[in-house]
Amino acid sequence: MRISCLLLVAVAALSPPQVQGRTVPAEHAAETAKPVVWRKVDSVNLADFNKDLVRGKLTMDVGVYLPSNFDPAFDKVTLAKMLDAIAAAKEIYEPTGVQINLLWVKTGAIDPRFLAIQANEIPRVPDTEYVNSYESSKRHPTELTAMARNAFESIIEPDRDNDRTIYLVALQDVIMPFTELAEGRNWTIKMVRTGGLSFPSYSYCNTMPPAFRGVITITNLSTPGRQRRTVAHEIGHKVMNVSHEYKTTNPAHEVFAEGGLMLYGSGEDIPSGAEGRWHLERLLMSPFLYRLRSDGTRQWNPDYKEGGHYYDPLYGDKVVHFPGQTKMDPNW
Predict the structure, then answer these.
(1) Which pick of 26, 70, 92, 295 has the fewest CB atoms within 10 Å?
(2) Helix axes 224-239, 79-93, angle to 10 degrees
(3) Is 208 helix (H, G, I), strand (E, B) or coil?
(4) Is residue 28 in some structural domain?
């Protein structure tokens, strides 16, 4: 009996703990936090916000988490700014035939450690000229940090439609590391302070836990331009599943140009056809969209077949094959 008890203790010590029904790796356990106690913001009139919804029209569900314990100096995201940004996104997507259903806006005190997070692990392999960035991401997908995973475990409430719902999570800082060519064959690691981050499937593919597949962090709506485009742009990464690209512009980490919603600028165009890199078509196929049936149930679009990389078979021929490119010295 004594041996059995000692064995049970040893097994328990080696077994990874559980958080909200999910297994947490032992090395991450110390960082886990209790689930946030959320409450709905009563001042938000959902019926009024959603009054123009049309039954049977393609729809995306959006929920908002707005921490109540931001540091006093932080004012880049407020309730009013967030609602204005979602209203602008509704307007931008309206010509595509896609509507936004605001499920709720909730507030509560999150663990202060998670007011600022590092989103992803430092990339291990930079893109070179042999394959394009989408193919590279399929081979070497981005991975959440333990910090980001634990933050989302405490913030996102378990729900049967977690993997189909878009969550706008307001935080103070979300930092994203990336590689950049320094010179010759040398690369450097940089970190960017994001204003919004979509954690897109074309980048994370099978590494993203399904419960967090719809997370978008919003950290800066401080200017009229950001209020107008940030939420719509980040939703675009999620539902079109494309990077910063437009017509003849291939994806890059940052592309400042006018025209398309998916560039950095003031453009709002969501183009169609091969010349538009199939943005509209990919949007309409998104697994985050559904049509409301007459009985009130949701008829979801088909899900990804291979985790949601850019060339996922879900999209068929609605993809662009383009060569890899690099600024690396060819004579290295």
Answers:
(1) 295
(2) 60
(3) coil
(4) no
CA 307 to chain centre: 14
Average model confidence (pLDDT) across the chain: 91
Question: Mean of the pLDDT values across residues 17-29?
Answer: 46
Residue 228 has pLDDT above 90, yes or no: yes
Is the pLDDT assigned to residue 318 strictly greater than 90? yes
State the residue range of the domain holding 158.
33-315
Does residue 17 carry a pLDDT above 50? no
In angstroms, the CA 60 to CA 58 distance is 7
pLDDT, greater one: 175 or 4: 175
In sequence order, what are the residues at sequence separation of 6 or more whose Cβ sits closer than 8 angstroms to the Cβ of residue 326?
127, 128, 129, 181
Q: Total structural domains in the chain?
A: 1
Task: Give the strand pairing for 173-183 and 166-170.
Answer: unpaired
Q: In this structure, what token pair is assigned to residue 308? A: 């949601």
Q: Under a CB-based contact definition with an 8 Å cutoff, are residues 93 and 53 in contact?
A: no
Q: Which 3 state secondary structure label does DSSP give 24?
A: coil
Tell me whether residue 7 is in a domain. no
In a domain, 326, yes or no: no
Residue 9, domain member (yes or no)? no
* Closest to 194 in 3D by CA, of 212, 213, 164, 169: 169
Phi, psi of 209 (to 5 degrees): -55, 135
- What Cα–Cα distance (Å) separates residue 303 from each residue in 97, 134, 288, 325? 20, 19, 8, 31
d(CA 314, CA 332): 39
Largest Cα–Cα distance of the chain, in whole Å? 74
Looking at the predicted structure, is the pLDDT value of residue 189 above 80?
A: yes
Residues 6+ away with beta carbon under 8 Å from 192: 175, 176, 178
Q: Which helix (DSSP H) or strand (DSSP E) does residue 90 occupy?
A: helix 79-93
